Amino acid sequence: MKLSILIPTFNEEATIEQLLHRIAAISFPIEVELVVVDDLSQDQTFSIERRFQETAPQIPVQIFRNPVNQGKGTSIATGLQHATGDVIIVQDGDLEYHPEEIPKLLAPLLAKEAEVVYGSRFLQHRWPAGMAWRNHVANRLLTWLANRLCRLRLTDAYTCYKLMPRDLLKELQIEARGFEWEAEVTAKLGRRGVKIQEVPISYQGRSRQEGKKIRPRDLATGIRTLVRYRSRRPS
To answer: For strand 87-90 and strand 61-65, is the pairing parallel, antiparallel, or unpaired?
Structure first.
């Protein structure tokens, strides 16, 4: 079995090098590849990614760059087209999520206890470290709505860490171009009746000054996405 870690990036020069080296240093229980998709960064992110690819033979790395800035969902779709792993997880280009915890998410899947595993920021902490109150409220609202509309029992619907088989993710035929990718994936899994197992993870939020990109308008987009793909019998 092989894991593909999809890393969509945009203007992450302050964190991307450390992130990539941290992933390369992890002892994974299965084969791993990195698929990095730069969303036309305007800083040194892409150069750092290319340099890492040339100097890190200990882990296979594919790097791609969007011709225009298109959003997180589009970058993930690009990465998925090139991923060769049996299992997929998305890793943001910053250091809010700790990649050392990815093996913990793999464990239930490898033990055949779950088909899809989410890393929840709220299982151990009611208020994850560094999470701004606006983001906290938005996450709580979106998770509550996902549970109501999609027949789920999640504590963190908008977590970045969603681990699942590549074939399943492709079958979902995700259309989202931006941050609403998280809502669409969750809603479509709910429609299929897929059981999602949550595993507690660590989190260290960053501020807008530190590069946080999600905005209040993304809350409205997420709500519309959940409503659009709410649970009903697939056609």
So the answer is: unpaired
Q: How many Å apart are CA 233 and CA 118, to the nearest integer?
A: 24
The DSSP annotation for 128-144 comes to -TT--HHHHHHHHHHHH
For the chain (length 235 residues), average pLDDT per consecutive 10? 97 96 96 98 97 89 95 96 98 96 97 97 90 91 95 96 98 93 96 96 80 71 92 53
Instruction: Tell me the domain boundaries of the chain.
Output: 2-228
pTM above 0.70, yes or no: yes
CA 153 remoteness from chain centre: 19
Question: Do residues 177 and 39 lie in contact, with contact meaning Cβ atoms separated by under 8 Å?
Answer: no
CATH of 2-228, one of 3.90.550.10, 1.10.10.10, 4.10.520.10, 3.90.180.10: 3.90.550.10
In terms of C-beta density within 10 A (0-12 exposed, 13-18 middle, 19 or more buried), how is residue 198 classed? buried
Taking each helix axis as running N to C, give the angle between helix 181-192 and helix 72-82, from 0 to 180 degrees, rounded to the nearest 10.
60
Q: In what order do the strands lie in the sheet with 61-65?
A: 61-65, 31-38, 2-9, 87-90, 162-165, 116-120, 196-200
* Coil/strand/helix, residue 119: strand
Among residues 149, 163, 226, 232, which one has the least CA distance to residue 198?
A: 163
For the chain, the residue count is: 235
